[in-house]
Amino acid sequence: MWSTLPLDLAALGRPNGQFSFDRSATRQYPLRGGTVSDGSGIADMLLGAPGSGFLDWNDTYYRSWPAIALFVQNDWKASRKLTVNLGLRYDVQFPFVERWNRMNTGFDYKAVNPLSDRILSAWNANKAVYDANKANAFPFPPPPIAIYGGKTFIEPGASRHTYNTDWTNLQPRIGIAWAFAPRTVLRTGFGIVHRTAAQGGYTDGFSQQTAYQASLNGGISPAALTGASGGPYSLANPFPNGITAPSGRERGLLTNIGNGVSFDGRQRPIPRTFQYSFGLQRHMWWNVLLDASYVGSITNHDSLAYNSDYLPTDIFLQGQKTTTFLTRTVPNPFFGILPANSTFGASSTVAAQNLFYPYPSFNGITISTNLWTKIRYDSLQLSAQKLFGGNRNVSGALTMVFSYTFSKNMQSSNRLNNWNLNEEPVHELVSYDKPQNISYSGVWDIPFGKGRHFLPKPNKFVHQVISGWNVNWIYRFTSGNPVAGIDALSNCADLVVENQTKDRWFNNDKSCNYRARASYTLRVVPDRYAWLRQMDNLAINLAVAKTFALTERWKFNLRGEAFNLMNHPIYKAPDTGITSVRFGMLPLDQQNFPRVMQVSAKLIF
After folding, report:
1. Residue 292 and residue 185 in contact, taking contact as beta carbons nearer than 8 Å
2. Residues 491-508: pLDDT tens digits?
3. Which bin fits 309, alpha (ψ -120 to 50), beta or left (φ > 0)?
4. In which region does residue 418 sit, left (phi positive, over 0), alpha (psi from -120 to 50) or beta (all else)?
Protein backbone atom coordinates (compact mmCIF):
# COMPACT_ATOMS: atom_id res chain seq x y z
CA MET A 1 0.00 0.00 0.00
CA TRP A 2 1.27 3.46 -0.92
CA SER A 3 -0.29 6.69 0.29
CA THR A 4 0.53 10.38 0.33
CA LEU A 5 -1.22 12.56 2.87
CA PRO A 6 -1.37 16.27 1.96
CA LEU A 7 -1.62 18.60 4.95
CA ASP A 8 -2.68 22.13 4.10
CA LEU A 9 -2.28 24.03 7.36
CA ALA A 10 -3.20 27.62 8.09
CA ALA A 11 -3.08 27.87 11.88
CA LEU A 12 -3.69 31.53 12.64
CA GLY A 13 -2.89 31.15 16.33
CA ARG A 14 -3.70 34.32 18.29
CA PRO A 15 -3.20 37.22 15.84
CA ASN A 16 -5.04 39.58 18.20
CA GLY A 17 -2.95 38.51 21.18
CA GLN A 18 -3.67 36.53 24.34
CA PHE A 19 -3.02 37.67 27.92
CA SER A 20 -3.35 36.06 31.33
CA PHE A 21 -3.41 37.62 34.81
CA ASP A 22 -1.85 35.68 37.69
CA ARG A 23 -1.63 38.03 40.74
CA SER A 24 2.04 38.76 40.02
CA ALA A 25 1.49 42.54 39.80
CA THR A 26 -0.40 42.90 43.09
CA ARG A 27 1.08 40.29 45.42
CA GLN A 28 3.40 41.29 48.25
CA TYR A 29 6.37 39.11 47.32
CA PRO A 30 6.89 39.19 43.54
CA LEU A 31 9.12 36.11 43.29
CA ARG A 32 6.90 33.87 45.42
CA GLY A 33 3.34 32.61 45.16
CA GLY A 34 2.19 34.23 48.40
CA THR A 35 -0.95 33.33 50.33
CA VAL A 36 -4.61 33.03 49.40
CA SER A 37 -5.22 36.69 50.18
CA ASP A 38 -2.02 37.96 48.52
CA GLY A 39 -2.71 39.61 45.18
CA SER A 40 -5.65 39.42 42.81
CA GLY A 41 -5.84 38.46 39.16
CA ILE A 42 -8.83 40.81 38.72
CA ALA A 43 -6.82 43.65 40.25
CA ASP A 44 -3.95 42.90 37.86
CA MET A 45 -6.37 43.16 34.94
CA LEU A 46 -7.84 46.45 36.18
CA LEU A 47 -4.30 47.82 36.45
CA GLY A 48 -3.59 46.63 32.91
CA ALA A 49 -0.68 44.42 34.04
CA PRO A 50 -0.75 40.94 32.46
CA GLY A 51 1.32 38.15 33.99
CA SER A 52 2.05 36.69 30.57
CA GLY A 53 0.93 36.98 26.98
CA PHE A 54 1.84 36.75 23.33
CA LEU A 55 0.76 37.63 19.81
CA ASP A 56 1.09 35.36 16.74
CA TRP A 57 2.00 36.25 13.17
CA ASN A 58 1.77 32.93 11.34
CA ASP A 59 2.45 31.80 7.79
CA THR A 60 0.66 28.97 5.94
CA TYR A 61 2.13 25.57 5.03
CA TYR A 62 1.56 22.66 2.71
CA ARG A 63 3.15 19.35 3.73
CA SER A 64 3.23 16.15 1.65
CA TRP A 65 3.60 13.02 3.76
CA PRO A 66 4.21 9.75 1.85
CA ALA A 67 4.04 6.30 3.45
CA ILE A 68 4.19 2.67 2.34
CA ALA A 69 2.88 -0.45 4.09
CA LEU A 70 3.17 -4.18 3.36
CA PHE A 71 1.06 -6.81 5.16
CA VAL A 72 0.81 -10.58 5.02
CA GLN A 73 -1.40 -12.85 7.12
CA ASN A 74 -2.22 -16.54 7.30
CA ASP A 75 -4.63 -18.60 9.39
CA TRP A 76 -3.25 -22.09 10.05
CA LYS A 77 -5.69 -24.67 11.36
CA ALA A 78 -3.20 -27.02 12.97
CA SER A 79 -5.93 -29.38 14.19
CA ARG A 80 -9.64 -29.44 14.82
CA LYS A 81 -9.03 -27.79 18.20
CA LEU A 82 -6.06 -25.54 17.45
CA THR A 83 -5.92 -22.47 15.18
CA VAL A 84 -2.86 -20.25 14.76
CA ASN A 85 -3.01 -16.80 13.20
CA LEU A 86 0.26 -15.36 11.87
CA GLY A 87 0.82 -11.89 10.48
CA LEU A 88 3.59 -9.48 9.54
CA ARG A 89 3.33 -5.80 8.68
CA TYR A 90 6.07 -3.44 7.58
CA ASP A 91 5.62 0.34 7.50
CA VAL A 92 7.80 3.17 6.32
CA GLN A 93 6.62 6.65 7.29
CA PHE A 94 8.72 8.95 5.17
CA PRO A 95 9.37 12.40 6.66
CA PHE A 96 7.11 15.03 5.15
CA VAL A 97 8.23 17.71 2.71
CA GLU A 98 6.94 21.28 2.96
CA ARG A 99 6.26 22.68 -0.50
CA TRP A 100 8.03 26.00 0.11
CA ASN A 101 10.69 24.70 2.56
CA ARG A 102 9.20 26.77 5.39
CA MET A 103 10.65 24.56 8.13
CA ASN A 104 13.39 24.44 10.74
CA THR A 105 15.79 21.51 10.74
CA GLY A 106 16.93 21.76 14.35
CA PHE A 107 19.37 23.73 16.49
CA ASP A 108 23.12 24.07 16.05
CA TYR A 109 24.76 24.09 19.50
CA LYS A 110 28.31 24.52 18.14
CA ALA A 111 27.78 27.44 15.77
CA VAL A 112 29.17 30.78 16.95
CA ASN A 113 26.35 33.32 16.85
CA PRO A 114 26.98 36.29 14.50
CA LEU A 115 26.40 38.69 17.44
CA SER A 116 28.93 36.94 19.67
CA ASP A 117 31.70 39.58 19.50
CA ARG A 118 29.35 42.51 20.13
CA ILE A 119 27.67 40.76 23.06
CA LEU A 120 30.98 39.73 24.68
CA SER A 121 32.34 43.26 24.28
CA ALA A 122 29.31 44.68 26.11
CA TRP A 123 29.48 41.87 28.66
CA ASN A 124 33.11 42.58 29.57
CA ALA A 125 32.46 46.33 29.76
CA ASN A 126 29.47 45.81 32.09
CA LYS A 127 31.46 43.39 34.23
CA ALA A 128 34.34 45.86 34.68
CA VAL A 129 32.00 48.64 35.88
CA TYR A 130 29.90 46.33 38.05
CA ASP A 131 32.83 44.62 39.77
CA ALA A 132 34.48 47.99 40.47
CA ASN A 133 31.51 48.91 42.67
CA LYS A 134 32.37 47.39 46.07
CA ALA A 135 28.75 47.76 47.18
CA ASN A 136 27.81 44.80 45.02
CA ALA A 137 27.82 41.65 47.14
CA PHE A 138 28.58 39.29 44.26
CA PRO A 139 30.70 39.65 41.12
CA PHE A 140 29.18 40.02 37.68
CA PRO A 141 28.60 36.63 36.00
CA PRO A 142 31.72 35.64 33.99
CA PRO A 143 31.37 35.84 30.20
CA PRO A 144 31.43 32.62 28.16
CA ILE A 145 34.16 31.92 25.61
CA ALA A 146 31.69 32.72 22.86
CA ILE A 147 27.94 33.06 22.32
CA TYR A 148 26.90 29.80 20.71
CA GLY A 149 23.78 28.37 19.15
CA GLY A 150 20.99 29.12 16.73
CA LYS A 151 18.07 27.66 14.80
CA THR A 152 18.80 25.97 11.47
CA PHE A 153 16.68 25.79 8.31
CA ILE A 154 16.16 23.79 5.14
CA GLU A 155 18.61 25.31 2.72
CA PRO A 156 18.49 25.27 -1.10
CA GLY A 157 20.32 22.25 -2.48
CA ALA A 158 20.23 20.36 0.84
CA SER A 159 17.83 17.66 2.01
CA ARG A 160 14.25 18.88 2.21
CA HIS A 161 13.41 16.41 4.99
CA THR A 162 13.37 17.62 8.59
CA TYR A 163 13.76 14.10 10.01
CA ASN A 164 15.65 10.92 9.25
CA THR A 165 13.65 8.02 7.84
CA ASP A 166 12.95 5.18 10.29
CA TRP A 167 13.36 1.87 8.42
CA THR A 168 12.86 -0.40 11.46
CA ASN A 169 9.05 -0.49 11.73
CA LEU A 170 8.63 -4.28 11.49
CA GLN A 171 5.44 -5.48 13.17
CA PRO A 172 4.97 -9.24 13.68
CA ARG A 173 1.89 -10.65 15.39
CA ILE A 174 0.65 -14.08 16.42
CA GLY A 175 -2.65 -15.33 17.81
CA ILE A 176 -3.59 -18.78 19.13
CA ALA A 177 -7.03 -20.26 19.86
CA TRP A 178 -6.99 -23.74 21.49
CA ALA A 179 -10.05 -25.69 22.61
CA PHE A 180 -8.09 -27.81 25.10
CA ALA A 181 -11.15 -29.00 27.07
CA PRO A 182 -14.90 -29.38 26.43
CA ARG A 183 -16.64 -25.98 26.26
CA THR A 184 -13.34 -24.23 27.12
CA VAL A 185 -11.08 -22.18 24.83
CA LEU A 186 -7.68 -20.66 25.53
CA ARG A 187 -6.87 -17.53 23.56
CA THR A 188 -3.52 -15.76 23.56
CA GLY A 189 -1.73 -13.34 21.31
CA PHE A 190 1.21 -11.01 20.86
CA GLY A 191 1.85 -8.22 18.41
CA ILE A 192 3.92 -5.12 17.76
CA VAL A 193 2.20 -1.99 16.52
CA HIS A 194 3.81 1.29 15.40
CA ARG A 195 1.79 4.44 15.89
CA THR A 196 1.67 7.17 13.28
CA ALA A 197 4.30 9.84 13.90
CA ALA A 198 2.79 13.00 15.38
CA GLN A 199 5.55 15.58 14.91
CA GLY A 200 4.75 18.44 12.53
CA GLY A 201 8.09 20.22 12.84
CA TYR A 202 8.88 23.78 13.92
CA THR A 203 8.48 26.89 11.81
CA ASP A 204 10.33 29.60 13.74
CA GLY A 205 11.00 32.53 11.43
CA PHE A 206 7.95 31.72 9.29
CA SER A 207 5.39 31.65 12.09
CA GLN A 208 6.55 34.25 14.53
CA GLN A 209 5.34 34.85 18.08
CA THR A 210 6.01 38.06 19.99
CA ALA A 211 6.11 37.45 23.73
CA TYR A 212 4.73 39.97 26.20
CA GLN A 213 7.38 41.33 28.58
CA ALA A 214 5.81 40.92 32.03
CA SER A 215 8.88 42.31 33.81
CA LEU A 216 12.03 44.18 32.91
CA ASN A 217 14.01 43.24 36.04
CA GLY A 218 13.67 39.51 36.46
CA GLY A 219 10.18 39.49 37.93
CA ILE A 220 10.79 41.92 40.79
CA SER A 221 8.31 44.49 39.45
CA PRO A 222 5.76 44.36 36.60
CA ALA A 223 6.74 46.13 33.39
CA ALA A 224 3.24 47.57 33.00
CA LEU A 225 3.56 49.57 36.24
CA THR A 226 6.99 51.11 35.69
CA GLY A 227 5.67 54.18 33.90
CA ALA A 228 2.50 56.21 33.60
CA SER A 229 -0.84 54.48 33.57
CA GLY A 230 -1.64 53.36 30.05
CA GLY A 231 2.02 53.58 29.12
CA PRO A 232 4.43 50.96 27.71
CA TYR A 233 3.69 47.29 28.47
CA SER A 234 0.20 48.05 29.83
CA LEU A 235 -2.86 46.70 28.03
CA ALA A 236 -3.10 50.05 26.26
CA ASN A 237 0.32 49.45 24.68
CA PRO A 238 1.41 45.87 25.46
CA PHE A 239 4.07 45.67 22.73
CA PRO A 240 5.83 49.07 22.76
CA ASN A 241 8.83 47.69 20.84
CA GLY A 242 6.63 46.49 18.00
CA ILE A 243 5.49 43.13 16.71
CA THR A 244 8.12 40.71 15.42
CA ALA A 245 7.42 40.07 11.74
CA PRO A 246 8.23 36.70 10.14
CA SER A 247 11.71 36.83 8.64
CA GLY A 248 11.82 33.44 6.96
CA ARG A 249 15.31 31.92 6.95
CA GLU A 250 17.02 35.26 6.33
CA ARG A 251 18.08 35.79 9.97
CA GLY A 252 19.54 32.30 10.21
CA LEU A 253 21.14 31.75 13.63
CA LEU A 254 19.61 35.02 14.84
CA THR A 255 16.05 33.69 14.50
CA ASN A 256 14.21 34.12 17.81
CA ILE A 257 17.42 35.05 19.59
CA GLY A 258 16.66 36.47 23.02
CA ASN A 259 13.60 34.21 23.44
CA GLY A 260 12.99 30.64 24.48
CA VAL A 261 13.10 28.19 21.57
CA SER A 262 12.12 24.57 20.95
CA PHE A 263 13.17 22.23 18.18
CA ASP A 264 12.91 18.67 16.90
CA GLY A 265 16.03 16.56 16.49
CA ARG A 266 16.70 14.52 13.38
CA GLN A 267 15.22 11.46 15.05
CA ARG A 268 11.44 11.28 14.65
CA PRO A 269 9.70 9.31 17.41
CA ILE A 270 7.44 6.58 16.03
CA PRO A 271 6.08 4.98 19.23
CA ARG A 272 6.33 1.18 19.34
CA THR A 273 3.69 -0.76 21.30
CA PHE A 274 4.07 -4.40 22.36
CA GLN A 275 0.58 -5.82 22.93
CA TYR A 276 -0.10 -9.16 24.59
CA SER A 277 -3.04 -11.05 26.05
CA PHE A 278 -3.90 -14.40 27.61
CA GLY A 279 -7.43 -15.50 28.37
CA LEU A 280 -9.79 -18.38 29.03
CA GLN A 281 -13.34 -18.54 27.74
CA ARG A 282 -15.74 -21.18 29.10
CA HIS A 283 -19.38 -22.00 28.56
CA MET A 284 -20.56 -22.50 32.15
CA TRP A 285 -23.70 -23.89 33.73
CA TRP A 286 -27.08 -22.17 33.20
CA ASN A 287 -25.97 -21.01 29.76
CA VAL A 288 -23.45 -18.46 31.09
CA LEU A 289 -20.48 -17.52 28.92
CA LEU A 290 -17.54 -16.57 31.14
CA ASP A 291 -14.38 -14.84 29.89
CA ALA A 292 -11.28 -14.08 32.00
CA SER A 293 -8.23 -12.42 30.43
CA TYR A 294 -4.99 -10.66 31.20
CA VAL A 295 -4.37 -7.85 28.71
CA GLY A 296 -1.31 -5.64 28.68
CA SER A 297 0.91 -3.43 26.57
CA ILE A 298 4.24 -1.63 26.72
CA THR A 299 4.94 1.44 24.61
CA ASN A 300 8.41 2.92 24.11
CA HIS A 301 10.17 5.24 21.67
CA ASP A 302 7.72 8.01 22.51
CA SER A 303 8.92 11.60 22.86
CA LEU A 304 10.09 13.37 26.02
CA ALA A 305 11.05 17.06 26.12
CA TYR A 306 14.26 18.27 27.75
CA ASN A 307 15.45 21.83 28.42
CA SER A 308 19.16 21.87 27.59
CA ASP A 309 19.65 25.51 28.58
CA TYR A 310 19.34 25.94 32.33
CA LEU A 311 21.57 26.68 35.28
CA PRO A 312 24.60 24.42 35.86
CA THR A 313 24.25 22.36 39.03
CA ASP A 314 26.89 24.29 41.02
CA ILE A 315 25.26 27.63 40.19
CA PHE A 316 21.80 26.23 41.02
CA LEU A 317 23.03 25.07 44.45
CA GLN A 318 24.65 28.45 45.11
CA GLY A 319 21.35 30.16 44.35
CA GLN A 320 19.68 27.72 46.73
CA LYS A 321 21.93 28.92 49.56
CA THR A 322 21.66 32.61 48.69
CA THR A 323 18.66 33.44 46.52
CA THR A 324 19.84 36.98 45.75
CA PHE A 325 22.93 35.56 44.04
CA LEU A 326 20.66 34.72 41.08
CA THR A 327 17.67 37.04 41.51
CA ARG A 328 19.70 40.30 41.66
CA THR A 329 19.49 42.51 38.62
CA VAL A 330 22.63 43.40 36.69
CA PRO A 331 23.34 45.47 33.57
CA ASN A 332 22.09 43.64 30.50
CA PRO A 333 24.85 42.89 27.96
CA PHE A 334 22.20 42.09 25.34
CA PHE A 335 20.43 45.46 25.58
CA GLY A 336 20.71 47.41 22.34
CA ILE A 337 22.07 44.33 20.53
CA LEU A 338 19.25 41.78 20.62
CA PRO A 339 15.85 42.82 19.25
CA ALA A 340 14.03 45.15 21.62
CA ASN A 341 10.89 43.01 21.38
CA SER A 342 12.70 39.87 22.55
CA THR A 343 12.70 38.65 26.15
CA PHE A 344 16.40 39.38 26.78
CA GLY A 345 16.67 42.48 24.60
CA ALA A 346 13.84 44.55 26.09
CA SER A 347 15.46 45.96 29.23
CA SER A 348 18.74 47.58 30.25
CA THR A 349 18.88 45.23 33.26
CA VAL A 350 18.47 41.49 33.55
CA ALA A 351 18.32 38.91 36.34
CA ALA A 352 21.79 37.48 36.99
CA GLN A 353 20.34 33.98 36.63
CA ASN A 354 19.92 34.44 32.87
CA LEU A 355 23.62 35.14 32.35
CA PHE A 356 24.61 31.80 33.86
CA TYR A 357 22.73 29.79 31.21
CA PRO A 358 25.00 27.66 28.97
CA TYR A 359 23.49 29.48 25.97
CA PRO A 360 22.66 32.86 27.56
CA SER A 361 21.29 34.50 24.42
CA PHE A 362 18.27 32.14 24.58
CA ASN A 363 15.69 31.87 27.34
CA GLY A 364 15.70 28.07 27.36
CA ILE A 365 16.34 25.57 24.55
CA THR A 366 14.00 22.57 24.50
CA ILE A 367 14.50 19.51 22.34
CA SER A 368 11.15 17.77 21.90
CA THR A 369 12.04 14.45 20.27
CA ASN A 370 14.07 12.45 22.79
CA LEU A 371 13.02 8.78 22.57
CA TRP A 372 12.78 8.32 26.34
CA THR A 373 9.08 7.93 27.14
CA LYS A 374 7.70 4.55 28.26
CA ILE A 375 4.09 3.65 29.02
CA ARG A 376 2.80 0.36 30.47
CA TYR A 377 -0.75 -0.95 30.83
CA ASP A 378 -1.78 -4.08 32.75
CA SER A 379 -5.33 -5.28 33.30
CA LEU A 380 -7.49 -8.17 34.50
CA GLN A 381 -10.64 -8.30 32.39
CA LEU A 382 -13.67 -10.38 33.38
CA SER A 383 -17.00 -10.68 31.62
CA ALA A 384 -20.09 -12.85 31.98
CA GLN A 385 -22.89 -13.06 29.44
CA LYS A 386 -26.21 -14.71 30.15
CA LEU A 387 -28.87 -15.42 27.55
CA PHE A 388 -32.12 -16.40 29.24
CA GLY A 389 -33.89 -19.16 27.34
CA GLY A 390 -36.96 -21.11 28.30
CA ASN A 391 -40.44 -19.95 27.34
CA ARG A 392 -39.89 -16.48 25.92
CA ASN A 393 -43.61 -15.89 25.77
CA VAL A 394 -43.58 -15.93 29.58
CA SER A 395 -40.41 -14.05 30.45
CA GLY A 396 -39.51 -12.28 27.23
CA ALA A 397 -36.15 -12.53 25.47
CA LEU A 398 -33.51 -11.27 27.89
CA THR A 399 -29.73 -10.93 27.50
CA MET A 400 -27.46 -9.50 30.21
CA VAL A 401 -23.75 -8.75 30.10
CA PHE A 402 -21.57 -7.96 33.11
CA SER A 403 -17.96 -6.86 32.73
CA TYR A 404 -15.26 -5.79 35.15
CA THR A 405 -11.75 -4.49 34.51
CA PHE A 406 -9.06 -3.94 37.11
CA SER A 407 -6.16 -2.08 35.56
CA LYS A 408 -3.09 0.03 36.13
CA ASN A 409 -1.59 2.44 33.62
CA MET A 410 1.90 3.81 34.33
CA GLN A 411 4.20 6.12 32.43
CA SER A 412 7.74 7.49 32.46
CA SER A 413 7.27 10.48 30.20
CA ASN A 414 8.79 13.48 31.97
CA ARG A 415 11.12 14.65 34.69
CA LEU A 416 9.80 16.61 37.64
CA ASN A 417 12.54 19.12 36.75
CA ASN A 418 12.81 18.90 32.98
CA TRP A 419 16.34 20.35 32.83
CA ASN A 420 17.85 17.95 35.39
CA LEU A 421 19.52 14.99 33.67
CA ASN A 422 20.60 13.67 37.06
CA GLU A 423 17.07 12.47 37.77
CA GLU A 424 15.31 9.65 35.94
CA PRO A 425 11.96 10.26 34.23
CA VAL A 426 9.39 9.95 36.99
CA HIS A 427 7.53 6.61 37.07
CA GLU A 428 3.92 7.51 37.83
CA LEU A 429 0.28 6.97 36.93
CA VAL A 430 -1.01 8.46 33.71
CA SER A 431 -3.45 11.31 34.16
CA TYR A 432 -6.35 9.19 32.82
CA ASP A 433 -5.75 6.09 34.96
CA LYS A 434 -9.02 4.45 36.12
CA PRO A 435 -8.30 1.20 38.00
CA GLN A 436 -11.92 0.13 38.54
CA ASN A 437 -14.27 -0.19 35.58
CA ILE A 438 -17.66 -1.91 35.97
CA SER A 439 -20.34 -2.23 33.32
CA TYR A 440 -23.71 -3.95 33.45
CA SER A 441 -25.95 -3.88 30.38
CA GLY A 442 -28.91 -5.77 29.00
CA VAL A 443 -31.65 -6.02 26.41
CA TRP A 444 -35.16 -7.20 27.28
CA ASP A 445 -38.10 -7.80 24.94
CA ILE A 446 -40.98 -7.15 27.34
CA PRO A 447 -43.53 -10.04 27.43
CA PHE A 448 -46.65 -7.93 26.88
CA GLY A 449 -49.23 -8.40 24.15
CA LYS A 450 -50.51 -11.05 21.83
CA GLY A 451 -49.17 -14.55 22.64
CA ARG A 452 -47.20 -13.22 25.64
CA HIS A 453 -47.64 -13.82 29.35
CA PHE A 454 -49.22 -10.45 30.12
CA LEU A 455 -52.39 -9.42 28.26
CA PRO A 456 -52.08 -12.29 25.78
CA LYS A 457 -55.39 -11.55 24.01
CA PRO A 458 -55.59 -7.79 23.53
CA ASN A 459 -57.82 -6.10 21.03
CA LYS A 460 -56.26 -4.61 17.92
CA PHE A 461 -55.74 -1.16 19.40
CA VAL A 462 -54.25 -2.40 22.68
CA HIS A 463 -52.02 -4.80 20.74
CA GLN A 464 -50.53 -1.93 18.75
CA VAL A 465 -49.89 0.04 21.95
CA ILE A 466 -48.38 -2.60 24.28
CA SER A 467 -46.79 -5.27 22.06
CA GLY A 468 -43.23 -5.38 20.76
CA TRP A 469 -41.52 -3.05 23.22
CA ASN A 470 -37.91 -3.66 24.18
CA VAL A 471 -35.81 -2.09 26.91
CA ASN A 472 -32.03 -1.78 27.04
CA TRP A 473 -29.91 -0.31 29.79
CA ILE A 474 -26.29 0.41 30.65
CA TYR A 475 -24.90 0.90 34.13
CA ARG A 476 -21.32 2.19 34.20
CA PHE A 477 -18.93 2.87 37.06
CA THR A 478 -15.31 3.96 36.73
CA SER A 479 -12.79 5.26 39.23
CA GLY A 480 -11.93 8.94 39.20
CA ASN A 481 -8.68 10.17 37.64
CA PRO A 482 -5.70 10.96 39.89
CA VAL A 483 -5.57 14.46 41.40
CA ALA A 484 -2.68 16.66 40.27
CA GLY A 485 0.23 16.93 42.69
CA ILE A 486 0.51 20.07 44.81
CA ASP A 487 4.03 21.44 44.45
CA ALA A 488 4.08 23.26 47.78
CA LEU A 489 5.24 22.95 51.37
CA SER A 490 2.81 22.14 54.18
CA ASN A 491 2.80 21.54 57.91
CA CYS A 492 0.36 18.63 57.47
CA ALA A 493 1.78 15.18 56.82
CA ASP A 494 -1.25 13.74 55.03
CA LEU A 495 -3.62 15.17 52.41
CA VAL A 496 -6.24 12.44 52.87
CA VAL A 497 -9.30 13.24 55.01
CA GLU A 498 -11.68 10.69 56.52
CA ASN A 499 -14.97 12.45 55.77
CA GLN A 500 -14.48 13.73 52.25
CA THR A 501 -16.88 16.51 51.16
CA LYS A 502 -17.17 18.86 48.19
CA ASP A 503 -15.60 21.65 50.22
CA ARG A 504 -12.88 19.46 51.74
CA TRP A 505 -11.82 16.96 49.11
CA PHE A 506 -8.39 16.81 50.69
CA ASN A 507 -6.83 18.43 53.74
CA ASN A 508 -7.12 22.15 53.03
CA ASP A 509 -7.13 23.23 56.66
CA LYS A 510 -5.51 26.65 57.12
CA SER A 511 -3.37 25.24 59.92
CA CYS A 512 -1.48 23.27 57.24
CA ASN A 513 0.00 26.59 56.07
CA TYR A 514 0.47 25.69 52.42
CA ARG A 515 3.23 27.81 50.91
CA ALA A 516 5.33 27.93 47.76
CA ARG A 517 8.48 25.89 47.51
CA ALA A 518 11.63 27.93 48.05
CA SER A 519 13.39 29.28 44.98
CA TYR A 520 16.08 27.09 43.38
CA THR A 521 14.97 23.88 45.07
CA LEU A 522 14.07 20.72 43.16
CA ARG A 523 10.49 19.62 42.81
CA VAL A 524 9.92 16.31 44.59
CA VAL A 525 6.11 16.21 44.64
CA PRO A 526 4.76 13.85 41.94
CA ASP A 527 2.70 15.20 39.06
CA ARG A 528 -0.32 13.33 40.41
CA TYR A 529 -1.26 11.23 43.43
CA ALA A 530 -2.07 7.53 43.24
CA TRP A 531 -4.07 7.67 46.47
CA LEU A 532 -6.10 10.84 45.87
CA ARG A 533 -8.59 10.82 43.04
CA GLN A 534 -11.33 12.87 41.48
CA MET A 535 -14.98 11.86 41.83
CA ASP A 536 -15.86 8.36 40.68
CA ASN A 537 -17.91 8.30 37.50
CA LEU A 538 -21.33 6.65 37.78
CA ALA A 539 -24.01 6.72 35.10
CA ILE A 540 -27.21 4.84 34.23
CA ASN A 541 -28.65 5.12 30.73
CA LEU A 542 -32.01 3.66 29.69
CA ALA A 543 -33.78 3.30 26.35
CA VAL A 544 -37.24 2.01 25.39
CA ALA A 545 -38.16 1.37 21.76
CA LYS A 546 -40.88 -0.17 19.58
CA THR A 547 -41.40 -0.63 15.85
CA PHE A 548 -45.01 -0.32 14.57
CA ALA A 549 -45.92 -2.21 11.39
CA LEU A 550 -48.16 0.25 9.52
CA THR A 551 -48.32 -1.78 6.30
CA GLU A 552 -46.25 -4.51 4.75
CA ARG A 553 -43.88 -1.87 3.44
CA TRP A 554 -44.15 1.02 5.91
CA LYS A 555 -42.90 0.87 9.49
CA PHE A 556 -42.69 3.43 12.25
CA ASN A 557 -40.01 3.30 14.95
CA LEU A 558 -40.51 5.14 18.25
CA ARG A 559 -37.68 5.42 20.76
CA GLY A 560 -37.31 7.12 24.12
CA GLU A 561 -33.94 7.54 25.85
CA ALA A 562 -32.71 8.83 29.20
CA PHE A 563 -29.03 9.61 29.81
CA ASN A 564 -27.76 9.98 33.38
CA LEU A 565 -31.14 8.68 34.50
CA MET A 566 -30.45 9.22 38.23
CA ASN A 567 -29.18 12.77 37.58
CA HIS A 568 -25.89 11.97 39.35
CA PRO A 569 -23.51 14.99 39.14
CA ILE A 570 -19.81 14.43 38.53
CA TYR A 571 -17.70 17.44 39.44
CA LYS A 572 -14.33 18.31 37.95
CA ALA A 573 -10.99 17.99 39.71
CA PRO A 574 -10.50 19.82 43.03
CA ASP A 575 -8.70 23.14 42.99
CA THR A 576 -5.00 22.56 43.79
CA GLY A 577 -3.83 26.18 43.56
CA ILE A 578 -2.58 27.11 47.02
CA THR A 579 -3.43 30.79 46.46
CA SER A 580 -7.00 30.06 45.34
CA VAL A 581 -9.92 30.81 47.64
CA ARG A 582 -11.36 27.41 46.58
CA PHE A 583 -8.21 25.46 47.34
CA GLY A 584 -9.10 21.86 48.18
CA MET A 585 -12.71 22.25 47.04
CA LEU A 586 -14.54 20.75 44.08
CA PRO A 587 -15.61 23.32 41.48
CA LEU A 588 -19.21 24.48 41.27
CA ASP A 589 -19.68 23.29 37.69
CA GLN A 590 -20.02 19.60 36.82
CA GLN A 591 -18.25 17.85 33.97
CA ASN A 592 -21.08 15.51 32.96
CA PHE A 593 -24.51 16.44 31.60
CA PRO A 594 -27.49 16.58 33.94
CA ARG A 595 -30.29 14.14 33.19
CA VAL A 596 -31.13 14.28 29.47
CA MET A 597 -34.32 12.74 28.08
CA GLN A 598 -35.20 12.56 24.43
CA VAL A 599 -37.80 11.00 22.14
CA SER A 600 -37.14 10.18 18.50
CA ALA A 601 -39.27 8.81 15.68
CA LYS A 602 -38.25 7.24 12.40
CA LEU A 603 -40.32 6.25 9.38
CA ILE A 604 -39.02 3.20 7.55
CA PHE A 605 -40.07 2.16 4.03
Report:
1. no
2. 988 899 988 999 999 999
3. beta
4. alpha
